[in-house]
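Q: I have 277 residues here and want to know how they pack in 3D. Can you give me a structure?
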Amino acid sequence: MKFFDIHHHYNLFQYGDKRVEIPKNKTSSEYFESELIKYCKKLDMKVIVNGLGFCDFSETLMDMNDEVEKFFKNNEEYIIGSGFIDLDYDTPNKIDHLFKRGFKGIKIHINKKRYDDRSYFEFYRRCEYYNLPILFHTGISGLKGNLKSSANSFNAKPIFLEDIAVNFPKLIIIGAHLGYGFYYEACCLVSSFRYTSNNIFFDISGDDDVYRRLTKDSLINKDIPIENLLWGLDIQFFRYEEIIALWKKYFSKLNLTQEEQNKIFYKNSCKIFNIKC
């Protein structure tokens, strides 16, 4: 089986109470990149690394698009770049530049206004034009203090992707964590577009709490179709095998076929990013 991690932040070492010790002879970036490539080779995996990353093992999120660009250009077999855009402080021209630099997607997180605010629409228009899928954080965040105190999780509710999908029907929209905290809203949103543009997808990335809540009510393949689900990690690389094993066990409990599991773990993401499976 192959894997495709749709959601990974550059230099992510710390999550909750779990930390990674960095060897003294390496910088945080050198260690992150070398370890992530090891897992890619071991698991036969591609990873979308986004530019909303962490600098020097800090808990503070930063724009690290430059570092991501160097990383994916040196490891094209495994790494795909997703550029970070700050909807409140960047201009839409940044989309043009990221596309020209080779980024294949866009990551958006922690915004002052609702995702469907008209002032953001030019960003989405350009992403649609360049065929750049957008990964939106959806649901509760708890991280607003990392970038801007005026942002809040309400602005990231899944329902605010609806108007974007209507106005930009060719734009691939990916919501993170199946709307963390707004799961049924996310599922209903996907269902409402299934027979029209069908351009809304959700990933099932996140920590143990996300896994527990997503599996508690058996939403997968009941409230949301297999074809609209993508797998991602969004926590430290050393937990890849552990998290994959958890999902495999749960998918077996749901009696998902091997092909259905392959779609979630790999094929759906390949289709979105135009990569031959």
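Q: Anything worth noting?
A: Residues 28-43 form the longest helix (16 residues). The chain has a mean pLDDT of 92.
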